[in-house]
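Form 12-C: Joint structure prediction
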Amino acid sequence: MTDTRDEIDAEEGAGVVKKFMFVNRKAPYGTIYALESLEVVLISAAFDQDVSLAFLDDGVYQLVKGQDTKAIEVKNFSPTYRALEGYDVEKLYVERESLAARGLTEDDLLVPVQVVSAAEMAELMEAQDVVIGF
Amino acid sequence: MLHIVNKSPYEKTSLASCLAHARKGGAVLLIEDAVYAATRGSVAEAALRRAMQDVAVYALGPDLEARGIKGKVMDGVTVVDFGGFVDLVAEHRTNQSWL
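Section 2 - Result
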């Protein structure tokens, strides 16, 4: 079994670490995108990839403090963003223009983030090996 | 980077967001409902015209044909077929879909 595993690893380039960025542009509960993105982020982290998350447009709403979904009877997945650190996912970038357009500031967010301009966000995107949009 | 947009600019902000993040030398490919952005005389035309100073803009021919707007494509937009779509993906180191 071990040999087979090694062969597969060799074929598939085990140990290769790529820079993955997950771009979140949708609000959390109106569609399934935000939750699905989180699932994929956790999977990528499990494969020891260099993962970063970008939040822009309505995606910034995913990180707003004080979400309480009891009355709409869906899972409140916002605490998961605070748990990402435990999976070595520590690069969370939030676009300044998107926050400002929605009357939000960094103080409204439930997790420490790096606030960046749209131009800086574009540079970060360019520096990735894989960019996956949600 | 190749940016791929598939939403109408009149329904979603995907195209505007994409154009705000596309960097010089990049490319934007319009597919599905995003091809409506490439039509002459549309509100989106001006934004695309500005973007063309820095990025190449492409539209997927089969999606234009399906929507009856192939004859309305603005100057400067390169129409590609499915093979051209594949070529664009292969030519760029990375790509990003703006949903």
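Section 3 - Comments
The mean pLDDT of chain A is 92. The interface with chain B takes residues 23, 25-26, 33, 56-57, 118, 121-123, 125-126, 128-134 of chain A (CB under 8 Å).
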